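Database export, one record per block. Field names are fixed; values are copied verbatim from the stored entry.
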Amino acid sequence: MRVPRILAALILLACCARLSAAPVKQPNIIILVADDLGWNDVGYHGSDIRTPAIDRLAKTGIQLDRFYVCPICSPTRAGLLTGRYPHRFGLRDTVIPPWRKFGLELSERTLPQIFAEFGYERRACIGKWHLGHYKRAYHPIERGFTHFYGHYNGAIDYFTHLREGERDWHRNFKPSADAGYSTELLGEEALRFIKSSPAGAPFLLYLPFNAPHGPLQAPRKYLDEYGYDEKSGSFRKKNKLQARDEYGAQGQGNHKRQTFAAMVTAMDTQIGRILDTLDAEGLAENSIVLFFSDNGATLKIGGSNKPLPGAKHSVHEGGVRVPAVIRWPAGLKGSRKLDMLMGYIDVLPTLAGLVGGERKRGDKPMDGVDLSNVLQGGAKAPERTFYLGQKAVISQQWKLIEGKLYKIDTDPTEKKDISEKNPAILKRLSRELAAFEKLAGKIKVAPYSSGRKDFKAPGNWQIEAERKKK
């Protein structure tokens, strides 16, 4: 029987309507965080360090040219995972050291917990946690991740994985005996996670590398790329420095910048393997890949923030303005640069906006802003003031720091204090700074070294509950 033309047309229109109404598949999310990587430590910023994979992201994605973080790592990680300023819950001026019985405030809802409600069933944290390790409640799996592989503390030995004389390397809750250079182990685990993801099911991968944070150690093959001369000896021997007991001389190059560069290239190699795997698995088109550093470089170990002033621990530009790139071929126009003000607290709300997720009513208010529409080209960047800590705030045009005012969009090196010529702006930013500082909660964290004396690390860095099971 022949179908009348008009009826056939109606059937075709109905089919098209059903197709167009079909939900768009949620993207995979991969968050790559470098540790102490400076502004001048990536190739696309003109560095002498080779970072072809990060450069590939920068070329094909969106360079976030004004991306800000905290000047040290635990606070940045806390703000990234909550979308809230970390001084609200006691994390601002110090990291969580091995001897601290403290962690990310347990009443805070985290990015993986929220994305579980958006349909992301597989959520991995692979790398450096640094947000609490004393009790099970602080563990990544208790904070919303379904898989953890890596280390709890910062500054572990890259080869032995020791910190305070005990091996800090774990798979989920149990110690792992995996041997190898930590950066490469993390890359391998990330590849396993990606390849094992069921087809059609979106995943969340948070990969906070410990590189290139000290101690300075790199595999010989990467040192050789930067002209390592075995006869010249290591920088530590040249300077007659003694390594701490848990840190051997393994992986130390002729000088600090050489070793630091080798560490960055080793990390970049693993990022390249991840990008290649996304391509090979047919996942690249619908995967959001976000890369940034947790704070600026530490100059004394070979990092560089040039031409930005300052370094890690400082809220001058070199300490808090970091390399950052986002790429999502299916959802964001790439090969461009945005100079809008953005930062670590914006990651959670922006990713939620990109995937179309809605948070629960009654959740604590986020300090971060959903910039998904700006990234997609459908809106202008909002006017806002962003709190940096250490009595400093920044906006798209202005920066108030140490009582001085800079036209930061045209003076990123903070050379000319123009506070006297702009008293109204100085007054407004000072008022906003005071309001930000009032957000601080009652939790006060002790200084970094407090409690270090006579501290003895638990065997294999097992958390309290797991030790008691034995």
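Remark 1: DSSP finds 13 helices and 16 strands in the chain.
Remark 2: Confidence is low (pLDDT under 50) at residues 6-23, 240-246.
End of record.
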